[in-house]
Amino acid sequence: MTGNTDKLKGKVKETAGAATNDDQLRAEGKTDQNVGKLKDKVDHAIDAAKDKLTGK
Prior knowledge:
Layout: H1 3-20, H2 23-54
Helix pairs in contact: 1-2
C-alpha cells in the first residue's frame, strides 16, 4: 500500500472508532495514518537519494 492509502484507511478507521466510541479502532486509525506518513517520508528520501546519485 502507498502512504496515501494507509492515511486514508486510517482516517476511515479513526472516524468509525469515534462514531462507535471504539477507542481501539480509533487508535488503529491513528497508527495507520502515522504509518502512511512514514511511508511517504521514506519514499521521499529514496527519491532524493536517487536524484543525488544520478545528478538531478
